[in-house]
Amino acid sequence: MSLETQVQRPSQLAAHHRRGSYRLRKTLGKIIIHAVLITGAVFLMVPLLWMFSTSLKSLGTVMVIPPEWIPEEPLWSNYAEIFQVVPFGLYIRNTAFVTLADVVGKIISCSLVAFAFARLRWRGRDTLFIIMLATMMLPTQVTLVPQFIIYRYLGWIDTYFPLILPNWFGGPFLTFLLRQFFMSIPLELDDAARIDGATIFGIYWRIILPLSKPGLAAVGIFTFNASWNDFFAPLIYLHSRERYTLSLGLRSFQDQNYTEWHLLMAASLVAMVPVLLIFFFAQKYFIQGIVFTGIKG
Amino acid sequence: MTTGVYRLSPMRRNEELAGWLFASPWILGFLLFTAGPMLISAGFAFAEYNLLQPAQWVGTANIEKALSGDPLVWQSLKVTTIYAFVSVPLQIVFGLIIALLLNTNIRGLQYYRTIYYLPSVLSGVAVALLWRWIYAPNYGLINALLAGFGIQGPGWLSDARWALPSLIGMSLWHVGGGIVIYLAGLQGVPTEIYEAAEVDGAGWLTRFWNVTIPLITPVLFYQLIIGIITALQVFTQALIMTNGGPHDSTLFFVLYLYRNAFQFFKMGYASVLAWILFFYILLLTLLVYRSSSVWVFYSGEVKRS
């Protein structure tokens, strides 16, 4: 502590004594804080461990009480079995295709729009920006029925267009995130580039984008998560089994094998793996992204 | 802004055009996917359309039915409201407590943060299945643990009294997204303020109530609004884990809307329900917003009414 005195007068001995107990209280406090945090962390991790543990059991050992946390004979073959019971590989490919198309579309469109809102001066900009922010409040359900009817009219039901197309037209949350990011880049860079003869597109492409890689990564990650886990849109728009995404595949798997928890957990865990991998390798982009806008992942 | 009624230089005119061009994806998307459908949706509210026969004008029949003749509308509003009003404050309180504990110069901050944040990036059907298994009546995690103490746990998701509380409990798994935000907010509080308060003799509790809380109220305000909007749109858990049951005790509003649109093919009625949801979200957001002048503190800014 900076306030601690070097010289000790007799009258301060008592104070020194108190400070000793103060330090003890402080250590005790830290221990209690760690205890609380660890307890909370255990509560949050137990579901995932339980899931992993179940995925390695047999139908018989799933129903043992008290539950075995570490199965005596881990059945890694459960993971192979789910690929035989359902066309899981196909579902993964379908989901990967849609997710990739969404991520590319979102990064391109949101960065273009965010550039217009953050770096260019044009009439109507501020009004449109407020309208965009207002649409964040709009529940997607309000536009759901007309969108479905329009897609049906276009013959796009049971195709991936309704899932992918909206992602190529910006989107308020992630455009806002990128705008905040772009705003933090000094404006002098644009001016300098302009004097050097750069076009507006050149400024976007050669200055703003390269300097915003963390922001673009955050957009990519959030879109990846949202698309990979999306359930509502596939549920409404996809009907044929061969076009199912993982969410729909898991759901139909549940309907058919609702008591085979070891297989259900293995399948669910497989569906979570890409998100988990990205989380561990790109955690800082997640955190940067949500700190910038307060969006939850 | 700087644009006024004056002749623009060629460079500025260029920028004007570029602005519209760069923003055009969102402008187009707004017209095609938001504004246009909203107008159509408003029209459908007065029609009946089952996708097979041509739409029929029914006047205000849909609206009258939703507001007075359909007990399930009120049931689903009740369920959704209880969920939002219990789960959102719980998430904020727990998230804030953990963020405060993490903000005490504690060792291993980034490990704790990773662990707490991890569940909140997981969502969708896989998570709903995991929690169905945790709540499963006989061999699920919770009842298996309770059985160890000789307690026969209820069928969490199949008991009308427990189904909604179970879904609320599950929502606490996602507390970590808020923690990261609170932590950023807490670390933005200048340490001088704490030091000044300490010099003035403010104790731990006083500092917490009079310094920490006021300074992060803008963050809490934001989380409250986003939390309510998200909670009112719960769908996946309700469909996968309970399918609205038992006895409609988890009939969330969006699930009921989904049933009307895509199982009963009442497109007009579903449009009315969507508008009810819209106005309900608007109402709650406005209430929170109006209340914010009382409890949200913006440092360095004169409070606006």
Q: What secondary-structure arrangement, pairings included, does this model have?
A:
The complex is a heterodimer of chains A (297) and B (305).
Chain A: H1 10-55, H2 59-62, H3 77-85, H4 88-119, H5 125-135, H6 141-153, H7 161-164, H8 172-183, H9 188-195, H10 200-211, H11 213-229, H12 232-237, H13 246-256, H14 261-281, H15 283-293
Chain B: H1 10-44, E1 47-48, E2 56-57, H2 61-69, H3 71-102, H4 109-121, H5 125-134, H6 141-148, H7 163-171, H8 176-187, H9 191-199, H10 204-231, H11 236-242, H12 253-262, H13 267-295
Helix pairs in contact in B: 3-7, 3-8, 3-10, 4-8, 5-11, 8-10, 10-13, 12-13
Notes on the structure:
The complex is a heterodimer of chains A (297) and B (305). Chain A is mainly α. Chain A has helices spanning 10-55, 59-62, 77-85, 88-119, 125-135, 141-153, 161-164, 172-183, 188-195, 200-211, 213-229, 232-237, 246-256, 261-281, 283-293. Chain A folds into two domains: 10-55; 79-293, MetI-like (MetI-like fold). In chain A, helix 3 (77-85) packs across helix 14 (261-281). With 305 residues, chain B is mostly helical. Chain B folds into two domains: 10-57; 66-295, MetI-like fold (Orthogonal Bundle). Chain B contains 13 helices and two strands; from the N terminus they run αββαααααααααααα. Classes of the chains: A mainly alpha (297), B mainly alpha (305). The interface between A and B is large, with 95 and 102 residues.
Quick structural summary:
Chain A has 297 residues and is mainly alpha-helical.
CATH class annotation of the largest domain in chain B: Mainly Alpha
- Number of separate domains of chain A: 2
The count of helical stretches of chain A stands at 15
Shape of chain B: globular
Helix content of chain A: over 70%
Major sheet size, sense and barrel closure of chain B:
2 strands, antiparallel
Helix and strand run of chain B: HEEHHHHHHHHHHHH
CATH topology of the largest domain in chain B: MetI-like fold
Q: Kindly provide the radius of gyration of chain A, computed on alpha-carbon positions and rounded to a whole number of angstroms.
A: 27 Å
| Overall number of structural domains of chain B | 2
Q: How far from one another are the termini of chain A?
A: 39 Å
For the biggest sheet of chain A, the summary is: none
